[in-house]
């Protein structure tokens, strides 16, 4: 099944269901967050415990740029909010648009942001590996953060400066000591709902925690993301990595809850 999905005309989100029928399932992501979401007083604050955070590498998986973490112990976890267990940070990656285009996966009252950051965590209390967790109902917790265009982001350059080393699909290089805490907005108010991976295999395993406050990054910084390639260095075809987002999917009666 490997690589016949992407974001193009012949392999884009509208066609994913042919190889991944769950694309039309009952809890798919992303979704549009409606204007009015009810506050759930039983939801506590979400805690991102990244103090001893240990990034290892940065890579291009042909769909996004990914920063990978050491997840062999509980050094970087999130807990609280809608979660019953702590979830370990595995990686983070981004989705973005073309120049001047929308690029987020989730939308808010019909409006897109320029980009969306996903911090992917797994439940190591219930499951023995990331791969097991990724296919299981309570397996993953993904924190989504919206990026809007504005001033330069003070810390994002650490990532964009490393991008020339992972321009092509399949490339990977050391990226140690990066703490994603520097990418969080000042408030951690969130929406939460039960959904799926937004890329094949689209497993319905994700507790989504979407931060309401966006962070600002400059158009110039986003331009560096668009120098990445969907394609490998040896391929004849060159395809700029952009518009790597899935559009909102039907809510199908799911409840969305607000932390405030
Ligand atoms: O797109 C990512 C995909 O690259 C992979 O990280 C997967 C987890 O195995 O998660 C999806 S997403 O749902 O976080 N977009
Ligand atoms: Zn993602």
Which terms summarize this structure?
mainly beta; binds (1S)-1,5-anhydro-1-sulfamoyl-D-galactitol; two-stranded parallel ribbon; binds zinc ion
The percent of residues in helical segments reads: under 10%
Low-confidence stretches: none
Query: Whole-Å distance between the termini?
Result: 42 Å
Specify the structural class: mainly beta
List the total number of helices: 3
Short description:
With 260 residues, this protein is mainly beta.
Describe the structure.
This protein has about 260 residues and is mainly beta. Helix content is about 5%, strand content about 25%. It is built from 3 helices and 14 strands. It has helices at about 130-135, 155-160, 220-225, and strands at about 30-35, 45-50, 55-60, 65-70, 75-80, 85-95, 105-110, 115-120, 140-150, 170-175, 190-195, 205-210, 215, 255-260. A hairpin with a 6-residue loop joins strand 5 and strand 6 (about 85-95). The protein is globular and about 55 Å long. The mean pLDDT is about 95. The protein binds (1S)-1,5-anhydro-1-sulfamoyl-D-galactitol and zinc ion. Zinc ion binds near residues 93, 95, 118 and 198.
Give the topology, please.
Elements: E1 32-33, E2 46-49, E3 55-60, E4 65-69, E5 77-80, E6 87-96, E7 107-108, E8 115-122, H1 130-134, E9 140-149, H2 157-160, E10 172-174, E11 190-195, E12 206-211, E13 215-217, H3 219-225, E14 257-258
The protein binds (1S)-1,5-anhydro-1-sulfamoyl-D-galactitol and zinc ion (ZN).
């Amino acid at each position: 099944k490997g690589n016949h999905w992407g974001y193009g005309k012949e392999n884009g989100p509208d066609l994913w269901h042919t190889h991944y029928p769950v694309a039309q399932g009952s809890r798919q992501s992303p979704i549009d967050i409606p204007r009015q979401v009810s506050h759930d007083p039983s939801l506590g604050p979400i805690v991102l415990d990244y103090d001893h955070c240990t990034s290892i590498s940065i890579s291009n998986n042909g769909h996004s740029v990914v920063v990978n973490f050491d997840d062999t112990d509980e050094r970087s976890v999130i807990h609280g909010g809608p979660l019953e267990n702590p979830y370990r940070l595995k990686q983070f990656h981004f989705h973005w648009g073309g120049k001047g285009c929308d690029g987020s996966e989730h939308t808010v009252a019909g409006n897109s942001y320029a980009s969306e950051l996903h911090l992917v965590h797994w439940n190591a209390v219930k499951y023995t590996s990331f791969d097991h967790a990724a296919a299981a109902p309570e397996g993953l917790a993904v924190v989504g953060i919206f990026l809007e265009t504005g001033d330069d982001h003070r810390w994002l350059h650490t990532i964009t400066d490393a991008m020339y080393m992972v321009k092509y699909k399949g490339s990977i290089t050391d990226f140690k000591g990066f703490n994603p805490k520097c990418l969080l907005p000042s408030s951690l108010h969130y929406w939460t709902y039960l959904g799926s991976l937004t890329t094949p295999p689209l497993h319905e395993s994700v507790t989504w925690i979407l931060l309401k406050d966006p962070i600002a990054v400059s158009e110039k910084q986003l331009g560096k993301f668009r120098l990445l390639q969907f394609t490998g260095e040896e391929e004849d075809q060159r395809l700029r990595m952009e518009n790597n987002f899935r559009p909102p999917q039907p809510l199908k009666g799911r409840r969305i809850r607000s932390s405030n």
